[in-house]
């Protein structure tokens, strides 16, 4: 008996069922991390990089619970009396003095070039990484994927850092992206630069065609100095000075460390300087819980510049005091700066 040809509607139904079955059997390519497809699309569009290679990089990154735990307990949440002893130890001071003496010529040359006191360059790498000894054990890619794609409170910032990391040219990094290590926040090198800081302030000071913030001291020192200079460091300017309130001192509230008043205004409100200062100098005021009670500090433009590196006033004061101790121990004078 001959076969009977199927009607047109029947053939269409069979074809539709066939497509459905075929699509159901195909593997579904789900993104490894939430938002990965959109991120890869943005980077590929901005840079022309291969989406397949970008996906391979991100597929290899892992969400790390330890990173989420670490960001929830920053040292800056401590009071000054507990924060200061972390960074102002006899060992860190003596190491800083030795480090300054060892690299004095390079530090002072770069300090002069950028108009930044070299002891502050040393203090930054001292506070951040103990002079390059502790640069971080986390994979930078893991850190930025974890915080940029799995940490809603600061996802906007860290996603932008992740995007910047993926967009950086190879010669802006100390090695392949998937081999870089750093802090739990994704900061790299002796000065702990985030990707946007590498892009905007990193310097190839040794002229080898690469910005290497892990292995090149000229690049490390010049990048820190350039960061400060570009953020408004004032050569020879004040950083911080103690203030003594009188019994009727007016409470002063500040939202950040940016200088807001001339010093004489704070004096009129009951805060006396303990050293000779310019009464017209733009100033702010910090009140900190010190070992012996409240400490009051006049802070100036250079203090504010340090807080652009890390917005905590505790961090800025620790850098300042470490820099002072290093300068004193190394015999640095104003004429040398």
UniProtKB/TrEMBL annotation:
Organism: Dyella jiangningensis
NCBIfam families: MltB
GO molecular function, one term: peptidoglycan lytic transglycosylase activity
InterPro entries assigned: Lysozyme-like_dom_sf, Lytic_transglycosylase_MltB, MltB-like, SLT_2
Keywords of this entry: Signal
Entry keyword annotation includes Signal: yes
Highest taxon of the lineage: Bacteria
Signal sequence coordinates: 1-30
Gene3D superfamilies from the UniProt entry: 1.10.530.10, Bacterial muramidase (1.10.8.350)
Residue ranges constituting the Transglycosylase SLT domain according to the UniProt record: 41-324
Active-site residue list: 128
GO biological process, one term: peptidoglycan catabolic process
UniProt-recorded name of the protein: Lytic murein transglycosylase B
């Amino acid at each position: 008996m001959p076969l009977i040809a199927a009607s047109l509607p029947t053939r269409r139904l069979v074809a539709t069922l066939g497509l459905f079955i075929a699509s159901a059997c195909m593997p579904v390519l789900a993104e490894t991390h939430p938002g990965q497809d959109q991120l890869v699309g943005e980077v590929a569009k901005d840079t022309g990089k291969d989406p397949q290679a970008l996906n391979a990089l991100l597929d290899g990154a892992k969400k790390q619970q330890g990173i989420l735990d670490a960001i929830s307990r920053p040292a800056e949440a401590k009071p000054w009396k507990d924060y200061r002893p972390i960074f102002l130890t006899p060992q860190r001071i003596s190491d800083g003095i030795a480090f300054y003496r060892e690299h004095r010529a390079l530090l002072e040359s770069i300090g002069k070039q950028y108009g930044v006191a070299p002891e502050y360059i040393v203090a930054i790498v001292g506070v951040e990484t103990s002079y390059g000894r502790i640069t971080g054990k986390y994979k930078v890619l893991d850190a930025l994927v974890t915080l940029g794609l799995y940490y809603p409170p600061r996802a906007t910032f860290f996603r932008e850092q992740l995007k910047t990391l993926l967009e950086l040219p190879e010669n802006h990094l100390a090695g392949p992206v998937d081999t870089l290590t750093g802090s739990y926040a994704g900061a790299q090198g002796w000065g702990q630069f985030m990707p946007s800081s590498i892009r905007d302030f990193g310097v190839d000071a040794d002229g080898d065609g690469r910005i290497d913030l892990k292995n090149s001291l000229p690049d490390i020192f010049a990048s820190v100095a350039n960061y400060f200079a570009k953020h408004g460091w004032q050569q020879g300017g004040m950083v911080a000075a103690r203030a003594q309130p009188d019994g009727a001192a007016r409470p002063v509230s500040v939202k950040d460390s940016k200088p807001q008043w001339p010093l004489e205004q704070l004096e009129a409100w009951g805060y006396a300087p303990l050293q000779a200062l310019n009464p017209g100098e733009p100033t702010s005021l910090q009140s900190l819980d010190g070992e012996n009670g409240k400490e009051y500090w006049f802070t100036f433009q250079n203090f504010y510049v340090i807080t652009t590196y890390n917005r905590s006033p505790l961090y800025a004061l620790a850098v300042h005091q470490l820099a002072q101790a290093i300068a004193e121990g190394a015999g640095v004078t104003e004429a040398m700066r």
